[in-house]
Amino acid sequence: MTDAAEATSKSERTGLAREFDYYLANQDAMVEQYNGRVIVLKDCVVIGAYDNYGDAVLETEKQHELGTFLVQRVSPGPGDYTVTIHSRYLGV
User: Fold this and answer.
1) Is residue 69 within 8 Å of residue 40, measured between CB atoms?
2) pLDDT tens digits for 3-46?
3) What is the rounded distance in angstroms from the CA atom of residue 19 to the CA atom of residue 28?
4) What is the pLDDT of residue 31?
5) What is the number of other CB atoms lying within 10 angstroms of the CB of residue 22?
6) What integer pLDDT is reported at residue 8 of this predicted model?
7) For 58-68, what is the mean pLDDT?
8) What are phi and psi of 24, to 5 degrees?
9) Long-range contacts made by residues 41-47, C-beta under 8 angstroms, separation at least 24?
10) Separation of first and last alpha carbons in the chain
C-alpha cells in the first residue's frame, strides 16, 4: 500500500479503528501524561485513566455502551498493542 493510499484508508476508518489510529498518532504525548495507565478513548478524547483494564471497562460501561470506546494501556513503543505468535507453536 502506498503512503497516500494508507493515509486515505486511515482517514476513512471509523469506530474503534479510528480511536486506535488516534492513539498511535498521539502516543508520545499520551506516554508523557499517562505512561503505565489504562486509558479509555471515545471520539478521539481520553475520557478516563485507570490502573487496570478491569476498572477501565467497569467504570466506563456505566455511562457508555460497550463497543463504543477503546481501552488501551499506555506505554512507549508497540509492546502493549502488538502480539507475536510463532508458527511452530501452532503446529504450522
Assistant:
1) yes
2) 544 554 555 788 999 999 999 999 999 999 999 999 999 999 99
3) 15
4) 98
5) 17
6) 45
7) 97
8) -60, -45
9) 41/69, 41/70, 41/72, 42/68, 42/69, 42/70, 44/18, 44/19
10) 27
CA-CA distance, 47 to 56, in Å (whole number)? Answer: 10
Place of cell 471515545: 42
pTM: 0.78
Closest C-alpha to 39, from 25, 62, 59: 59
Identify the sign of the CA torsion 42, 14, 28, 70. positive
Q: How far apart are CA 25 and CA 28, in angstroms?
A: 8
- Whether residue 91 is predicted with pLDDT greater than 50 in this model: the reply is yes
User: Which of these, 71, 58, 66, lies nearest to 20 by C-alpha position?
Assistant: 71
